[in-house]
């Protein structure tokens, strides 16, 4: 059993210390028993990277997600087992700036930072007014790059190269699967581009400012109520956004599953708008990355009044 393994069973494995790991290049960890088939263990810090690593790694790697389903990833704290897991992993796939705890714990020589694979966008414009404790302030760029499938396709290609270097015996498999994954993401990108071409409004009012890459790619304009899902926006910020939403003809305020809909509902009633769930994919969706992005497309088309 490989990629079929859900995050809850991954968490179960982490909790019972039965997780076997092996270093990719057969380096010094002699006391670690080899995992079944001697597959390199790859730790993926957040769901979209876990999905991507499973696609690219295929049956050649054992992928473990670090953030359990339903957990808001930005404020992840690492338990002893997770720290051990990071230490033993042949490779950790992460995005610097999403999770400060992970940024501090990763080994530079055995990690792949997806933010280095793509052109990043600057952090949200009200970043400086927001809480200091939030992960996003650790870096000057917006870390939510997985919400642009074309950038994620580039990450897939570079991850394939990285895995091929870490596990040269299976290099061709990694490269082939990376190419296939990049092509799949390219198709998704085209669907989004086509579906969001002709819309009544192009303004997205979101609960937390996670959709900057999606907005940039498909020529939408994101107005985030907060940068940080944990921070309550100030009344000033709410009335500022309400004014803007009215001016732009916004009919829907987007909320997300891990964030309380309260603020979005207050705002929606001020504007006379509805609320709808737009998934930033910071935790595992009901389906997978592709189906959740297609659901997001449908939600956006309805909310923005797109004809395609
Ligand atoms: Zn976020």
Automatic annotation (TrEMBL):
GO biological process: cell adhesion; metal ion transport
Gene Ontology MF terms: metal ion binding
Signal peptide annotation: 1-23
Pfam families: ZnuA
InterPro entries attached to this UniProt entry: Bact_metal-bind_prot9, Lipoprotein_PsaA-like, ZnuA-like
Keywords: Signal, Transport
Keyword Repeat set for record: no
PROSITE patterns noted in UniProt: PROKAR_LIPOPROTEIN
Source superkingdom: Bacteria
Family under the similarity heading: Belongs to the bacterial solute-binding protein 9 family.
PANTHER family reported in the protein's UniProt record: HIGH-AFFINITY ZINC UPTAKE SYSTEM PROTEIN ZNUA (PTHR42953:SF3), HIGH-AFFINITY ZINC UPTAKE SYSTEM PROTEIN ZNUA-RELATED (PTHR42953)
Name of the protein described by the UniProt record: Zinc transport system substrate-binding protein
Lineage start: Bacteria, Bacillati, Actinomycetota, Actinomycetes, Streptosporangiales
